[in-house]
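Budget justification aside, the reviewers requested a transparent look at the raw inputs and outputs of the sequence design task funded under Objective 1. We therefore reproduce one unedited record. The lines immediately below are the structure tokens for a 209-residue chain.
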């Protein structure tokens, strides 16, 4: 079975595909199929949005006569305690979807400029949803990963994407953007969720259904 990743974000695809490859699971992106699709993201939780993206993308593929694919979707975001959980489930839409993350990151740093270190706690949350070919919500698998850290005082690092340059991970003493791909996949919220999802797929023999 081939899994289609329901995203137009190639940064996510670069993080997820190697882990699926290592598990012997075939994952492709919508771009690999020559397609682009934006599902709604109007849920109140990361899980709501992940399920919405998975089922709507599956329905889109069915309409394209591509009902043989399983669909994997993720919703993730940065939750900052001092900002009452912002940007949270609106992380991708914060300041507008097309606003460069350099601008978004600097805006968040400016909002926290007078916030002391002990109050800069934050976490990344990722929820994954995977549906069988055809998009049946009754056959959906769910997994979640969380990484705890804090917001740095300055952006640092050129790896990763999105809010990674401002998220400081205490065990490594670096931002996520300063980690190697291998380091990040081991500890990140998305890496955790992917590994859990792969386990669920294997346990459910999802790959052979």
């Amino acid at each position: 079975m081939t899994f289609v990743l329901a995203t137009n974000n190639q940064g996510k695809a670069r993080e997820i595909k190697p882990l699926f490859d290592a598990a012997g699971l075939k994952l492709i992106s919508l771009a690999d199929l020559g397609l682009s699709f934006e599902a709604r993201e109007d849920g109140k939780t990361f899980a709501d949005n992940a399920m919405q993206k998975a089922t709507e993308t599956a329905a889109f593929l069915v309409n394209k006569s591509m009902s043989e694919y399983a669909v994997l979707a993720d919703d993730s975001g940065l939750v900052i305690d001092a900002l009452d959980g912002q940007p949270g489930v609106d992380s991708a839409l914060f300041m507008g979807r097309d606003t460069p993350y350099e601008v978004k990151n600097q805006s968040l740093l400016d909002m926290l400029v007078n916030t002391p270190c002990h109050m800069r706690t934050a976490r990344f949350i990722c929820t994954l949803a995977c549906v069988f070919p055809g998009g049946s919500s009754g056959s959906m698998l769910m997994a979640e990963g969380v990484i705890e850290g804090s917001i740095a005082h300055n952006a640092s690092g050129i790896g990763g994407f999105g809010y990674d340059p401002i998220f400081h991970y205490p065990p490594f003493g670096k931002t996520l953007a300063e980690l190697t791909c291998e380091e990040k996949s081991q500890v990140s919220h998305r890496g955790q969720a992917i590994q859990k999802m792969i386990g669920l797929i294997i346990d459910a023999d999802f790959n052979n259904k």
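Residues 7 and 159 are 20 Å apart (CA to CA). The chain is about 30% helix and 20% strand. Computational costs for records of this kind are itemized in the attached budget.
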